[in-house]
Amino acid sequence: QLQLVESGGGLVQAGDSLRLSCAASGRTSGSYTMGWFRQAPGRAREFVAAIGRSSGSTSYADSVKGRFTISRDNAKNTVYLQMNSLNAEDTADYYCAADPSPLFVLINKDPGRVSFWGQGTQVTVSS
Fold it and tell me: H helices within 1-127, ranges in order?
């Protein structure tokens, strides 16, 4: 079983930056495609970013492209999400995800079918 623990959320102002971290344990996270999803109050969980096993491939939702960067350090079993130029629409609970599927599958996968989830970290952006 793979355990995921997110950290780094908080309350920031519009235009600020945050870096989220997701620490994996229990198994080697390098065997999984890793991703970040978010869920705002009253809305469905949505894809934000994902990174392939070897860090060679990444994918982003259009709403965050150019502002967010996903990266991973397999030696540390950790995935990061650098979020710049935050705005109020980025306010949500952010969840780390891991799945054995390839990148192009994870980004289109029903969140209910993703293999592993963290507990989430809250990001609030005040305007």
Answer: 103-106
Helix segments in 43-107, DSSP class H: 103-106
Find all residues with CB under 8 Å of 59, minimum gap 6, and list them: 49, 50, 51, 103, 104, 107
Residue 116 φ/ψ, nearest 5 degrees: -135, 140
What's the CA gap between 85 and 53, in Å, rounded? Answer: 27
Closest Cα partner for 118 from 88, 78, 85? 78
Over residues 71-102, the pLDDT tens digits come to 999 899 999 999 999 999 999 999 999 999 99
